[in-house]
Design a protein that fits this description.
This protein is of the alpha/beta class. It has one domain: Aldolase class I (TIM Barrel). Helix content is 49%, strand content 18%. It has eleven helices and eleven strands. Helix 10 runs antiparallel to helix 11. The longest helix has 23 residues. The chain is globular and about 60 Å long. Bound molecules: 1,3-dihydroxyacetonephosphate, zinc ion and sodium ion.
Length: 283
């Protein structure tokens, strides 16, 4: 079934491995991710943006994730990604999400604290994990767009203060990655992650996990980034497989044919990310 991500991430951090949080955009992709995780005996987090909640429905998503995680016997956290709207957070928690992100990173520090506290008041007593962001992660995720000039790294002392003031169990500090596929290589500020890790005990979250080189992901995980978010690479992998199907066989309209190709591409991507963070065999 759906489990709390708090013990999952605390355990991962202690064990020096990561948990991948895959963004899913369709019901099929929920099954694909969980089938791959099951084959690798890996715990996993599924996450949806607000756009996906609006498209599929929070209660529908919860029911499908619950059914699929029970079918595959995979411990699965269900997380609401990058939410700026308290009402949607309430709706997700009511539906059965085990984790929510309040993204108030576009606001000044004090307002970010206030909005995060408001969500903590709602979620914490229900055992729902809360993730907050400090600094600004660049790139595009759903309708949140942050240009390269506006991207801003988290300040370590502010991370400490923020965790003390809000009590958040999970923190996403911007450390140089961006949402989407990079033009060049990401410029990850490892010494900053190290400093933050010395000041706060909570598991940290790596946003913008797509296209981050393997050794960089491993280093981030070793420095306490226990949750690694992957969206773009997964959806691109299976969308590309479907496109390829229609290039090669434009007359073949059998969904079982093109969705099988999509599934294989999705599962291969999931497996490679799970191997990267070292969560294989942790179930
Ligand atoms: P990518 O699209 O770069 O994988 O980023 C995912 C993410 O951070 C979701 O919150
Ligand atoms: Zn993100
Ligand atoms: Na990225």
């Amino acid at each position: 079934g759906i489990i709390s991500t708090t013990p999952l991430l605390n355990q991962a951090k202690k064990g020096k491995y990561g948990i991948v949080a895959f963004n899913v955009h369709s019901f099929d992709s929920i099954y694909w991710v969980l089938e791959a995780a099951a084959e690798m005996r890996s715990p996993v987090i599924l996450q949806t943006t607000v756009g996906t909640v609006k498209s599929l429905g929070a209660e529908n998503i919860v029911k499908v994730v619950k059914a699929a995680s029970e079918y595959y016997h995979v411990p699965t956290g269900l997380h609401l990604d990058h939410c700026t709207d308290y009402e949607v957070i309430k709706q997700a928690i009511r539906a059965g999400y085990s984790s929510v992100m309040i993204d108030a990173s576009m606001h000044p520090f004090a307002e970010n604290v206030r909005r995060t506290q408001e969500v903590m008041d709602l979620a914490d007593s229900l055992g729902v994990n809360v993730e907050a962001e400090l600094g600004k992660v660049g790139g595009v995720e759903d309708n949140i767009v942050v240009s390269e000039e506006d991207a801003q790294k988290a300040v370590p002392t502010e991370c400490k203060e923020f965790v003390q003031m809000t009590g958040v169990p999970t923190l996403a500090p911007a450390i140089g990655t961006a949402h989407g596929i990079y033009k060049g290589e990401p410029n990850i500020d490892f010494s900053r992650i190290e400093q933050i890790g010395e000041l706060v005990d909570t598991p940290l979250v790596l946003h913008g996990g797509s296209a981050v080189p393997e050794e960089d992901v491993r280093k981030c995980v070793s420095l306490g980034m226990a949750k690694v978010n992957v969206s773009t690479e997964l959806k691109n992998a299976y969308s590309e497989a479907i496109r390829q199907h229609f290039i090669e066989e434009p007359e073949s309209l059998d969904p079982r044919a093109y969705l099988q190709k999509a599934k294989e591409a999705a599962k291969a991507m999931v497996a490679s990310k799970i191997r990267m963070v070292g969560s294989e065999g942790k179930v």
